[in-house]
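pls read this protein.

:::
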Amino acid sequence: MRRYIIALVLFIGCTAVFGQNSTERDVIIKVIDKSYVKAIHNGNNPEAIAEGFHPGFNLLGVRDGYLTKYPIYTWIESTRRRAEADKKPNGVTTAKYPMIDITNGVAIAKVELYKNGKQIFTDYLSLYKIKGKWKIVSKVYDRTPQ
């Protein structure tokens, strides 16, 4: 009987922990989908970008062997200019989320982006939960060779 009680307690504890992370995972995917995939890649929506990204966000890349930094305010401005010019994205970008790792209020998400059925990027987004809301704080990426 004692074994059954211990097993039940472990099951309930694991369910609570994994259930919480599953819920957090869903919230993180919604933030990324709304503020990044839809707002930047598909919709030219600066307001949705500002909602999901922290103002201190930086996109980090490597160009000609040097680290580059692209702050969120620059990304929002270029998105705003695209929206004002009524330039629609060429094709719909979709995303897959093969990995999201969460430790308390910090997370990393691997996001694969596809356009017209072909993978175009693999992104690694870092997020913090700030004042109860997940915010994207940085990105590193790899462009898929075409």
Q: What stands out?
A: Helices lie at 2-42, 46-52, 72-84. The chain has one domain: 2-143. Residues 4-20 have pLDDT under 50 and may be disordered. The first strand starts at residue 53 and ends at 63.
